[in-house]
Amino acid sequence: MKKKSLIAGAALIVVTLVFSVILVANFNGLKTLTANPQIEFKTTPPIQNINPNIKGLNDAFVEISNKVTPSVVYIEVTGEVKKEDNQRKFDFFFGPDFNFEEPPLHGSGSGVIISQDGYILTNNHVIKNASDKGIKVILTDKREFSAKLIGSDPNTDVAVIKIEADNLTVASVGNSDNVQVGQWVLAIGNPLGLNNTVTAGIVSALGRNVQVNTDSYAINNFIQTDAVINPGNSGGALVDINGSVIGINSAIQTRTGYYQGYGFAIPINMAKTVSEELIKFGKIERGYIGVSIKDVDSKEAKGFGLDKARGVLIQNVIKDGAGDEAGLKPGDIILSVNGKEVNAANQLQTEIGSKRPGDEVILKIFRDGKEFDQKVKLKPRTDNSNITDNYLDNNFKGRNNSEQKQYEKIGLTIIDLTDRYKKEFDTDYGVYIQNVSPYSEAFTRGLRAGIVILEVNKEKVNNVSEFDELVKDKKEGDVLVLKILLSNKEIRMVVLELK
Asked: Which domains does the chain have, with CATH numbers?
């Protein structure tokens, strides 16, 4: 037994030695794995001969950023909340003795330095809720200053603030009248707290009428760009490839609250004019014609006898305003101001908005197939000249026994004016719109029940019979030029095409 054990042990030793030899044979040729700190990264660029056009553009962007960024500042605003509404809510739940304290508002934006001694151009909406000493300016070199408000203009969204400093880097101002769609631009500002941010894009459109300010006197005439603009960019610089500021970034159009490709800047020529007046006077005194206006479309051009859609249509003339005194009438079309063509309402607003009360302008007017020049002496804005463009949706309830007629081709149902309606509208002639068919021609052109039609193709109408006499022979494709009266006594011109 002992002998067998010895033989088994010897055999095991032999097997182990053989297996060890095999292992050594298999791994003998492998190198030992050790860390190598001397990895040689490839540094030769794959493109040796860079396209000189691309290289030049790249170098231009770098140079612009270096030169212009120091002239753009970060603005931090602290404001006080009007707590009346929230206090009422707390009174309702907790009683009138509950003392509700709103935390202060905080906001931020950008600004452009326009003088070495500290004048800074920004947006009105950036600083409009600032409390006293609630505007702080931080320069690119991290210096901080308290700024004071010099003046602001809500109608152009321009404001000027000032810090006490010397030898600041001043932005170069360009000429926005020379800006062209498609040209390269850079937006410089402080979006979303990311200070000194530069983005690039092109000018996407000019003269955009984006309703940033819903006041009827607001001048909405923007440069559109696809350079990335986000909250915080407001008041920053939009610059061209020369590094000149051509616009002050103001707004974005978005469904999310953030960039979706559509940014808007105030043309620098407008911002410059406004800022100069704010610095000089602390406020803006603007001249007004005293008219309600709209763009001319193809139907209106046809209705008024124009060769094509051009000019700006006068919808209403304010009593005792500059236009009224100059003899302007609803239905007149303004073709130019001081020889400069205007083909959009915001173009006309921009031209007139640069003038002061007392200034005279020459308007080229189209009326009854003829063109003539009319001198207008501008007047200041008055409270009773406020113009609203909202149509009525206000139906007078109740029926009467007056004549009624429906016009299916345009979607209108009209009735004679009763004594009640004449008193309500302060007119002794016209016909009353009782109903407008949904999605009809009248509906899409803005007519609603509760409006009085005073004229058809410049002919007064006293009743339904006269209205019918003027329209009964009209055929498909013909147009009707209606002079209408709203319940707020505003006059409008509406053109309908028979379907």
From this structure: 52-284 (2.40.10.120), 291-385 (2.30.42.10), 404-497 (2.30.42.10)
